[in-house]
Amino acid sequence: MKISTTSITFLAVVGSAVAFNGSPVFHRSPQRSSALHMGGARGGATSPAGKAKTVEVVSELLEKSEMIFTMPASGLTVSEVTALRRSLPEGTTAKVVKNTLMARAIDDNEGFEGLQGTALMKGANMWFFVEDDISGSLKSVKSFIKENGKIESHGVEGGVIDGDVIDAAGVKAVENLPSKIELIARIAGGIKAVPTKLARVTKAPNSKLARAIKLATDKNNGVEE
Asked: Can you tell me the distance from the alpha carbon of 108 to that of 113, in angstroms, rounded to the nearest whole number?
């Protein structure tokens, strides 16, 4: 499992989502018949070899993911899933995974074991495996849900980030965090601004720093006041 660059700010944000009882609370939407059969709870790899391959693929995705999250797969058509996948940022994979196979993949990857036995591991699930752009991935899914009128039936229900299992409120909090690219841009901008600010200060004739620099320079040149 990759270590997320958002881990420093995330711990403070997600705390509010679990403050009342110390652990996330999950609420599943009523289960519907699935129009999608792509390895989910009711279809996909059924042979031992097929199941083993699915576990291998999911395990590799988990290993590369900074965050994973889930939404109900029931009721989604193939065309809707195709459109959703195309809207995701590069490095994010959406996959319907049978819960028993997901459990096996989790056992092979440290940091996700908290999912075992939770409500997130019940029903037909579409999992999103995010390598890098967490905020962009969540916003893409949010737009899909809104544009397709699925706010009540297909909201993001929870996930895992930095080894912590979070509920829908925690996922929403993570969505508002800056992305890795945004963080890098802010840091780079701050570093770039330092020399400029320092130059302005040192050039100001009445500044304390400017006077101190002039005094030190005069003493080094043998000039006494």
From this structure: 9
Provide the angle, in degrees to the nearest 10, between the axes of the packed helices 168-175 and 7-15.
140
pLDDT at position 74 over 90: yes
Question: How far is 76 from 186, CA to CA, in rounded Å?
Answer: 39
Burial of 15 (0-12, 13-18, 19+ CB in 10 A): exposed
Identity at 129, one-letter amino acid code? F
pTM for the model stands at: 0.65
3-state SS string for 93-132: EEEECCHHHHHHHHHCCCCCHHHCCCHHHCCCEEEEEECC
Among candidates 161, 49, 58, 53, which has minimal Cα distance to 114? 161
pLDDT digits (tens, 9 = 90+) for 140-152: 999 999 999 999 9
